[in-house]
Amino acid sequence: MDLLDYLKDFAPEGKLALFDKLINERTRHLTVVLEDIFQSQNASAVLRSCDCFGIQDVHIIENRYKYTVNPDVSLGSSKWLNLKKYNTKENNTIDCFKQLKAKGYKVIATSPHKDDFSLYDMPINEKTAIVFGTEKEGLTDEALAHADGFMRIPMYGFTESFNISVSAALTLFELTKRLRESNTNWELTETEKNEVLLNWTKNSIKMASLLEKKFNELKS
Q1: In terms of Cα–Cα distance, which of 142, 64, 164, 136 is closest to 98?
Q2: What is the C-alpha separation between 168 and 173, in angstroms, rounded?
Q3: CA 130 to CA 33: how far, in whole Å?
Q4: Residue 121 included in any domain
Q5: pLDDT of residue 73
Q6: What's the domain count of the chain?
Q7: Does the structure show a pLDDT above 90 at 155?
Q8: Exposed, middle or buried: residue 170 (CB in 10 Å: 0-12, 13-18, 19+)?
Q9: Predicted pLDDT at 220
Q10: pTM for this predicted structure
């Protein structure tokens, strides 16, 4: 018996069936990057959208601002996601991009001023990381300089840009819809599924750390 099987006996009734259903809808083919989002309610709304559209990983760059989940907005979505923060380097944006590219991601910066791709024609056959910046300032010069490409959301009004949470929701709706309709292998691997299921199960159990300690003692 492994740790996941052991913990399943302690999970709330009905959760395991839901986990088994939703794990098949999760993806790491698309991922989201948030650069220096200083309004926690907006970043937390993005996390909620990521969960709703099946995006498993969110990368949070903290150069000037630290991000804390706003529970009133995220509605618990953060505990079902893998959040990776970048806050230990002189320039965390470049560090994040390097790590993503090393894992095979194309880094696409969102900007209303760049014309590489529209949201509706952006290719998604390769692993793609979509980067969002602050509403007022947008992405930093470093982010724009080190991105592999740019994407804009077509707009037809006087306002220059959408709120970040709206931008993320529109982007994820369109791209995940196209991804699920494609022949791209976007699902998690079996190893990844087991890793995520273990985290979900732990997060659904009170005192999971004590149960894990007990399991390790039984195995030793």
Answers
A1: 142
A2: 8
A3: 6
A4: yes
A5: 52
A6: 1
A7: no
A8: middle
A9: 77
A10: 0.92
Single-letter code of the amino acid located at 80: W
What value does the mean pLDDT of the chain take?
91
Residue 216 lies in a domain: no
**134 inside domain:** yes
Sign of the Cα pseudo-torsion (59, 130, 113, 69, in order): negative
What domain range includes position 93? 27-183
For residue 92, the SS3 value is helix
Amino acid 74: pLDDT? 52
- DSSP-derived 3-state class of residue 107: strand
Joined together, the tokens standing for residue 163 give 């709120």
pLDDT, one tens digit per residue, over 45-88 is 999 999 999 999 999 999 887 776 665 555 578 899 999 999 99
Q: Which tokens belong to 92?
A: 């965390």
| Structural element, H or E, at residue 166 | helix 164-181
The CATH number covering residue 37 comes to 3.40.1280.10
Helix (H, G, I), strand (E, B) or coil at 52: helix
> Is the separation of the CB atoms in 133 and 147 below 8 Å?
no
CB within 8 A of 72, min separation 6: which ones? 41
Count of CB atoms situated within 10 Å of the CB of 10: 14
Bigger pLDDT: 38 vs 184: 184
Is 192 inside a domain boundary? no
Element (H, E) at 33: strand 30-35
Half-sphere exposure of 20 (CA within 13 A, CB side): 7
